[in-house]
Amino acid sequence: MKMAIDDPQFAERIRAADPEALRAVVTSYLGQIHRAARSAGLDPERADEVTQATFTTFIEKARNFEGRSHVRTWLFGILYHKIRETRRQLQQERQMDEIDDVFEKRFDTQGSWVRPPQPVDVQLYASEIRELFEDCLERVSTQQRMAFVLREVDELSSDEVCKILNITHTNLGVIIYRVRNRLRECLEAKGVERK
Question: Which of 82, 106, 130 marks a domain boundary?
Answer without folding.
Answer: 106
